[in-house]
Amino acid sequence: MLETIRKRLTLLFSGTFLLLLILILIGVYFTTARLLDQTELNQLKSVSNRDLFERIEHGEDRVIRDPIYFQLFNPDGTERYTRLPDDLPKEPVRKFLDSNKVTEKIFSDGQHFLLYQRTSPEGSTLLLKDISATEDTLERLIAMLAGITVLSTLVLMGVSYVLAGRSVLPVQQAFDRQRRFTSDASHELRTPLTILYSGIELLETEPLSAEGKTILHDLKSETASMQYLVSDLLLLAREGHPGPMSLLDMSTLVTQTADRFRHTLADRTLHLDVAADLFIKGDRNQLIRLVTIFLENAAAYSDADIEVQLQHTSSDIRLSIADHGIGIPKENHDKVFERFFRGDHARHGTGTGLGLAIARSIADAHEAVILLDSTPDEGTRFTIVFPIP
């Protein structure tokens, strides 16, 4: 459980740090791109004086060097002087001149160009600059920032895992203390309860009045319930930690457990549909306890027949136990797996509220998942999904 919390904290920490890093890197990229674009545009604006182009028109063409190109127009829109690349497509340039835009970027034949136009009473001027080197710089910047992101992700995951471990350490210590206390208390309670139960059985052999026998029977029942509760608390203290795992015939285990449980049912039928030769890896005693918990739940909260199925799919083995009883409201579907939660079931006066918590603990230890499908007043179906070994 705590390892799950640690993993979630790791994802939370690393996700938060990574999000901040990505936002910073995005800001760096767009700021750099804006500065480079503004530098290129300022260079075009600095040479947009029409008198300068008048000198170029008369042969003084060393004033502006490539890769800046230009085109001059008279006030009536006719072309006066041009020096544009021969392979430059004319359609994007024409659309730009017809628009009200001041600047625009175009891409042609592997080259990037920045267009800038300026209008004056003497006519209009079109400036065009090859900014391929700038765009290549931005592409390399993107690659570098992507590399930084990947490397930072790995570093952040490691750092976050360490930080998450330190964060859950006090929780781990408190949890260990609680588990030791529960385990020690359960062990200490088992001995006096066993002595008490044995004493009650001994008293049953003595001659007693009818009222005495009734009281003794009630004491024996309550003592048995306490023994059962102590065993459940001890199992929960161990967090469903299984004993030695081995390959088990789940088909035989479910069939035998259901057959033993069938004798406790009165005026009801337990329908069994178990596929043969289904094997899983697990602890036999805990898996029997798991099946018994769901059978007891079905019997306690339903007066109708109980259905047990064990089937396999291409990816897992599924144990399904269904009843046709009072059902569980949707808002309680997650709560029923909490310790001591009973909800509306409390009105039946049975159980301690630990059964499903123990079942989930055992399922987690076997890497299984419990699915719940229930409708109030119609019934409940629990499906335990086991991985194929």
TrEMBL record:
It is found in: Membrane. The keyword DNA damage does not apply. Residues 184-389 form the Histidine kinase domain. The chain crosses the membrane at residues 9-30, 141-164. This is histidine kinase. Coiled coil: none annotated. Its EC number is 2.7.13.3. Keywords: ATP-binding, Kinase, Membrane, Nucleotide-binding, Phosphoprotein, Transferase, Transmembrane, Transmembrane helix, Two-component regulatory system. It holds the Pfam family HATPase_c. GO terms for molecular function: kinase activity. Its main location: membrane. CDD domains: HATPase, HisKA. InterPro entries: BphY/WalK/GraS-like (IPR050351), HATPase_C_sf (IPR036890), HATPase_dom (IPR003594), His_kinase_dom (IPR005467), HisK_dim/P_dom (IPR003661), HisK_dim/P_sf (IPR036097), Sig_transdc_His_kin-like_C (IPR004358). It catalyses: ATP + protein L-histidine = ADP + protein N-phospho-L-histidine. It comes from the Bacteria. It is an enzyme of class 2 (transferase).
